[in-house]
Specification:
single chain, about 180 residues, mainly beta, 4-stranded antiparallel β-sheet, 14 strands, elongated
Length: about 180
């Protein structure tokens, strides 16, 4: 599945082996009118595909083989979605955006659990105020162990910022040379 096209299309490429062991390639398209898809994440069971758009929409798709069907459209970010991460153990997912917020949702209902504003001035801001300098997460990771938390990589400050899923600040960790695997995931 490929996104990022200016016209909002998702390209689904399928390869099938026929009985004579010859490969056949098929392409299908699904158009997302809410804008180009710039972030994607699929559940481990490959039944749910989440797509973030350049305009801040989260498009939730059900997957059945090479067929995609839109389940839900969520508009809770005011800018481009930068990252999506599904944690199948928690049945939750998180999104981050250039608007400076991290949103945490439940699967498969897509209900919003928490919205966290990334603020370096006040570390415990939920639904923050507009006086803070804007920071955004380039990548966001939802973890179930050792405690449910969300970690955001903020490249402008070169830090990993961790919050509980209730939005309480846990800690900052400075980026190191060993961080490349995480931030380039």
């Amino acid at each position: 599945i490929k996104g990022g096209f200016w016209d909002g299309r998702l390209e689904i490429n399928t390869m099938i082996l026929d009985p004579k062991k010859k490969e056949k390639h098929f392409s299908k398209f699904l158009f997302i009118k809410e804008g180009p898809v710039v972030a994607m994440e699929m559940s481990k069971d490959e039944k749910i595909l989440l797509c973030g758009t350049k305009t801040g929409y989260l498009i939730c798709l059900s997957v059945d083989g090479s067929n995609l069907e839109i389940d839900n459209k969520i508009y809770l970010h005011n800018d481009e979605i930068t990252s999506i991460n599904i944690n199948d153990n928690l049945n939750m997912f998180s999104t981050s955006s250039l608007d400076g917020y991290i949103n945490i949702h439940i699967l498969p209902s897509y209900d919003l659990v928490r919205s966290i504003k990334i603020s370096l001035a006040n570390k415990n801001i939920l639904y923050g105020n507009s006086d803070d300098e804007l920071y955004y997460a380039n990548n966001v990771f939802l973890s179930s162990s050792p405690l449910p938390c969300v970690t955001a990589f903020i490249s402008s400050k070169r830090i990993f910022r961790t919050y509980t899923i209730n939005g309480e600040f846990v800690q900052d960790t400075q980026e190191t040379d060993n961080s490349n695997y995480i931030k380039n995931r």
